[in-house]
Amino acid sequence: MSYRVPRGTFDILPEEVKIWHWVEKQAQEICRRYQYQEIRTPMFEHTELFVRGVGDTTDIVEKEMYTFNDRGNRSLTLRPEGTAGVVRAFVEHKMYAGPLPTKLYYFGPMFRYERPQAGRYRQFHQFGIETFGSQDPAIDAEVIALGMQFLESLGLKGVKVEINTVATPEIRARYFDKLIEYFTPFKEELAKDAQNRLYRNPMRILDSKDPRTKEIAAGAPSILDFLDEECAGYFEKVKEYLDLLEIPYVVNDRLVRGLDYYTHTAFEFVADLSGAQASTVGGGGRYNGLVQEIGGPEMPGVGFGLGIDRIILALKEQKVDIPVQDQLDCYVVTIGDKAKLYSVKLLKTLREAGFVCERDYLDRKVKGQMKAADREKARFVAILGEEELEQGNINMKCLETGEQEQISLDAIVDYLSNKIQP
RNA sequence: GCGACCAUGGCGAAGUGGUUAACGCACCGGAUUGUGGCUCCGGCAUUCGUGGGUUCGAUUCCCACUGGUCGCCCCA
């Protein structure tokens, strides 16, 4: 075998696609109910958009982007996340001039250059929503509620919301100072990457997995102690709404998101999964400065991104039954050349009438055709031989009961309608 | 970028330094000529990831490479 998919990518084969269709359908339906409208943006954007939007100290920008120059020598990047592109479109098309809040959702592939492992790929898929224009904590809660309802609609069990506030840039700056102050005496004991982060983004040290760093971080000050009245009040309100919505959440003051644009609310959806990495199935938060950063007006926003690949992984691990409809109404079996010829027309008639039907294209004998019909789970087999054809009749056999009756060829649509429509 | 493990037919999976590389599933064909699901029979690897080496001889031993899986970092 000479060609393979590029590392970190995978084909979604027909059987799998059924699951994806179903998941997408749930997303669409939930969004419809919450009045979020789909937006489709390009899979690549100017590199600068992500550098500005996502943040140049983030891992995404520092080491994970698929960046290339096109023939016009423009630097482009395969989108590593969905928000930046949506915000760009929102600004570019001056959607802020329309009715607010603007509520959008997207579904599609994202790209990050990383070593693949369980639940992590170089091309992965996200379903995300973004809403612009509202500072009401109720909409933060709605965003979280939509995500939860989506996950529940899939039948995913044991999903928890972890929530935190990352306050405002000003408060965070003060908090950073305190963190640096706290961590500096331990500097030599911290994990190497934690040391590197100390002055650039000390909050990232908080969720380190290095044992010693963890111990040290356990004693670090909490951002919750630095909140001003407004931030604390906002956070309280969001939690109140979540209580009202009966959404199970835990406050995790160590929760740090990997993107720079968040303000106030930050949250993650965590599934009950064995693979440690992949248990975070999505995350999001509020990003009040982002629209302006991208060149738009001052405009608050909230959203989330959910990892569909991980969700499907979780569905499989939990052995969730996926409702798949792939029934075959009628398989047309023919005997002889004339019948075979006629079957082409018959298939067309049946399909126009709305039935799902199939026939043999491999010159199989009757037995082979019957086997195929059975394998493809046909409900009925229409058996057409030379004699029947001459008399204008056809045999209809129900595979489930084994019963067979001869009817007039002209009556086949009515016959199937009666038997199948339920 | 670092580490661990793995690499046999479409899939799953045994196996041995030496004439024909088990088995299961799937697929194809057959079991009196125009009828499925069960059963039975038959077919289905002439590079056992690639390239080197050790050896009289390697799929089985060694090395490199590639790929996969999982973990670290980080994230969805």
Properties at a glance:
422 residues; alpha+beta; BirA Bifunctional Protein, domain 2; Rossmann fold; 8-stranded mixed β-sheet; 5-stranded mixed β-sheet; 38% helix; 22% strand; elongated; RNA-binding
Element layout with pairings:
Blueprint: H1 14-34, E1 37-38, E2 44-46, H2 47-54, H3 59-64, E3 66-69, E4 75-78, H4 83-92, E5 102-111, E6 123-132, H5 137-153, E7 160-165, H6 169-183, H7 192-197, H8 211-218, H9 229-244, E8 249-251, E9 263-270, E10 280-286, H10 290-293, E11 301-307, H11 308-317, E12 328-334, H12 337-352, E13 357-359, H13 366-375, E14 378-384, H14 386-391, E15 393-398, E16 404-408, H15 412-420
Parallel strand pairs: 1-5, 7-8, 12-13, 12-14
Antiparallel strand pairs: 2-4, 3-4, 5-6, 6-11, 7-9, 9-10, 10-11, 14-15, 15-16
The chain binds one RNA strand of 76 nucleotides through residues 1, 4, 7, 58-60, 63-64, 81, 110, 112, 114-121, 124-126, 191, 193, 204, 209, 257-258, 268-269, 275-278, 280-283, 305-311, 333, 335-336, 365-375, 378, 381, 383, 385-387, 395, 397, 399, 402, 404.
